[in-house]
Amino acid sequence: MPITPSHELRASLEEHNKIFETLLQLIPAKYYLPQERDDDNNGSKYQKNKKKQSAPKQAIKEATKKARREKLDPANNKSILEIQREAAELKGLAPTNAKQKGKQKATAEDDDSDDPDIEMADLSDVPDSSAPAAPQPMPSYESISTVRAKLHARINSLKQERGAVTGEPGSRDELLEEQRRKRGLLREKRRQATRERKRNEEAGKQKKTAIQERTKGHQAKNQLIVPDPVPGGSSSGTTNVTFSAIASSGGPSKAKKYATATDPRAALSQLASRNEKLSALPAEKREAIEERSRWEKAEIRAEGGKVHDDAARLKKAAKRKEKEKLKSKVEWNKRKEALAANMAAKQKKRTDNIAQRNERRNDARKGIKPKVAKARPGFEGKRIFGSKRSSTKGNK
């Protein structure tokens, strides 16, 4: 923060003081200064007509004229600043006059000469009390910068006494040097943290590789050891043998080479085309190819794959599939016929119901009563133990 010089502060304060003085001059002094009144004028409420009775009219008129003249006189209408200035001048002149009078008495007693010139000179040296006193200058105060410098010096001295580190550099160069030093320390800390992190990562990787190598070594050793027989096994004493898949050098290309279609008829046609190609080759080459294909098929089966190269089994599968197709076709046809018959019966019943409804409606329009169906023989629908039977007996 920049420091304002003392002369600028003084000029600013004087300018503000002038503004306040001009504002105070605009207010008349009678509004906030007590006015001196005579005891005659301050009559009580019981002496209202005393002034009129005691003073004649001419005196009252003269007094009012005088009061009006004094009111309009500019010498009497003084502002509060002028009144305060006059009071300050009077207070300043009183002690100076007293000192000068004391000096004059002392010089008069000591001096035995009756020289009139000296007396006149002494009298001329005495200042006139009526003359206005010279304005006294304001007391000079220290500037803010000097006070601040003293405060900082005092703080630094106290810090040095108690052994604290003063963190305030003196000049711009020292400040830049301090910032550079802090940046260097921060950089060094970051580098050290990076080195530590890399060291920890490398140590973790080495530890992980060592653990993996140790586990691999244990696995290799365990594979060489024959496992102990499991207690509480089967009473027959037979051991369970498991066959693992053989890792072939050919890979999955062999399985693709002997792969056939899922449809038995298509598989038969593929097998027939392969046999035709083999029969067209010379005998020695055909035998070598057949031998190699047998070994390859054995490897595929050992790995868990399937090779469909038996023509008899493929023919049986084709026949079985044809029979299944025929059977499903017959069942499907029967189902279709049953659905058609059900639909026809439902449609016939619907048309019959509609025809009967129309017939009854037409009979109702013509006024023909519906025919009552004849009762079947027997007691169906007849009241045997009701009131009808008793009434018929009474009539008989």
Automatic annotation (TrEMBL):
Its main location: nucleus. Residues 109-122 have a biased composition (Acidic residues). Residues 123-133 have a biased composition (Low complexity). GO terms for molecular function: DNA binding; RNA binding. GO terms for cellular component: nucleolus. It comes from the Eukaryota. It is found in: Nucleus. It holds the Pfam family RRP14. Keywords: Nucleus. Residues 59-73, 170-216, 357-366 have a biased composition (Basic and acidic residues). The keyword Nucleus applies. One of its GO terms (biological process) is ribosomal small subunit biogenesis. Coiled coil: none annotated. Residues 34-145, 158-238, 341-396 are annotated as: Disordered. InterPro entries: Rrp14/SURF6_C, Rrp14_N, SURF6. Residues 176-366 form the Ribosomal RNA-processing protein 14/surfeit locus protein 6 C-terminal domain. Residues 12-75 form the Ribosomal RNA-processing protein 14 N-terminal domain. Belongs to the SURF6 family. This is Ribosomal RNA-processing protein 14.
